[in-house]
Specification:
Strand order of the largest sheet: 5-6-7-8-9
Helix content: 40-55%
Oligomer: single chain
Distance between the termini: 62 Å
Mean pLDDT: 86
Order of helices and strands: EEEEHHHHEEHEEEH
């Protein structure tokens, strides 16, 4: 049997920064690029290897290798490039192991789609410097309260100059926390968000093993809207929806601006 294997070089733009350029010796915008090699069988990607990062000057195209960004600060490589080998394995294992898990997963989706919400948030929201500072401060406050096992994650995304942030606290023993104490934990999170992100829209929540059991949200300059219950809205799902709505508004505004310009150009011809 003939098996065709090989590898393909790939590159992905993962960010942009202003920095001094060794080529044109000016402070210019630089693209941050990820370069890697994808191994494949019959042109189906299996996994990536030999990953490096580089900056490319937008003015003179000077290329310079750089260190890898902090984890979570840049979008990941496409899933197929990183974990494509899982698909042929899944095809083999599905009838024996994964089909029962799929049935269980469908039940979880019906109860709120928590895993899908988390996956979308991880693809769109990343931790900036301000997020990491707020996360460290909030984690310290909870540690001082003796809440062992409670972990905090803060991330953000931008669309058209609007920043949306998610402040999430996961606590495996949340089911044993009373509604009053949940409200106090949300209040601590709200105060921290007001301190670090007064001009941003913020979604925050408390998550147990699976479900969210505390939720709060505010627009910049508005009051918090808080909800405490056994099961509440997912701040990740709501933040993703708000981001996509903002992106759609930006796209509509760009289209509205471009239409008159195109009409004027056509009339001039």
């Amino acid at each position: 049997m003939l098996i065709i294997t090989g590898s393909s070089p790939k590159q992905q733009v993962v960010g942009q920064r202003n920095q001094p350029c060794a080529g044109c010796r000016q402070v210019t915008p630089h693209r941050v690029q990820r370069h890697y090699v994808v191994k494949h069988v019959f042109w189906f990607p299996l996994f990536s290897m030999s990953t490096i990062y580089a900056t490319v000057c937008e003015r003179c195209n000077h290329f310079a290798q750089t260190s890898a960004p902090a984890a979570g600060s840049v979008p990941p490589a496409p899933f197929l490039h990183r974990r494509g080998f899982l698909f042929p394995i899944a095809v083999v294992l599905f009838p024996f192991f994964l089909l029962p898990l799929a049935v269980v997963g469908a039940g979880t989706a019906a109860s709120g789609g928590t895993h899908a919400d988390t996956a979308s948030a991880r693809e769109l929201f990343f931790a900036a410097a301000a997020d990491r500072a707020a996360q460290s401060d909030l984690q310290r406050q909870f540690d001082n309260l003796g809440l062992a096992g409670l972990t905090v994650k803060v991330s953000s995304a931008d669309a058209g100059g609007v920043t949306i942030r998610i402040v999430a606290a996961k606590f495996s023993r949340l089911k044993k926390v009373s509604d009053g104490d949940r409200g106090r934990l949300l209040e601590i999170m709200e105060d921290t968000a007001d301190q670090f992100f007064p001009n941003n829209e913020v979604f925050l929540g408390l998550q147990g093993r699976i479900l969210w059991g505390g939720y709060s949200h505010r627009q910049a300059g508005e009051e918090w809207r808080r909800k405490v219950a056994e099961s509440t809205d997912s701040p990740e799902r709501e933040a993703v929806a708000a981001l996509r709505a903002s992106q759609a508004a930006v796209a509509r505004a760009s289209a509205d601006t471009a239409a008159p310009a195109a009409a004027s150009a056509a009339a001039a011809r």
